[in-house]
What we know:
Elements: H1 24-32, H2 38-50, E1 52-55, H3 60-63, H4 66-72, E2 73-78, E3 81-86, H5 88-94, H6 114-119, H7 124-132
Amino acid sequence: MAIKFIRLIPKIPVFKRDMYHIPENYSKSYEQKRITDSDEQKAFFYLTQFGGFRFRKLPSYFKDKPQFLEKWFKSKREYGFSQFKANTNFIKEFGNIELEPLLKKRCSEACYEDKFLLENGFSLKEAKEIEAF
Length: 133
């Protein structure tokens, strides 16, 4: 009998600068340690929430900050991506932040036909409510 392993932990997400709102308690914690730059806070958000992030190509707003990257991140190049994870400095300073639910800045505008929703276990009433929303 073959055993299939299901990947329960998602891949490290690709860093998307404006995907999420940073929770207030996260940004307060960062600001208390004098991390006020918005890109740096977004990178810290990804470390706090996801344990890291990745890039295909390092963006210019991080290329200009090699000391910042070296101080807070450990990185490696793998499968065409540069992966960044928290190093011990980050864990010591921010490892106690309590995780909060994510709030995306943008919603998907994808549309689904009633037939698709019905085939995937939604009732006709639920499909209509989704469509109205």
